[in-house]
Amino acid sequence: MKSETQDIALLKEAKNYLDNLSSQKLQVAIDFLADLQQKEEEEATEELLSIPNFEQELQEAEAEAKAGEVVSWKDIRRNV
Question: Cα–Cα distance between 33 and 25 in angstroms, integer?
């Protein structure tokens, strides 16, 4: 819960800064944030790809789903 409260405070602080920027500097901030997001996404992808056999297992799972070889989440939930 502390993390969520902290995130809200950080977002408010960032908004205060953004509200006071010129249009030109606001565009620079947007570009910077987009770069940060892209880097975070790339790091997440690299983390997944570092898992042994991840790509092969993902392809197998996608093929099973496409073939309808799935289990309803309700069936799984009942067995918990």
Answer: 12
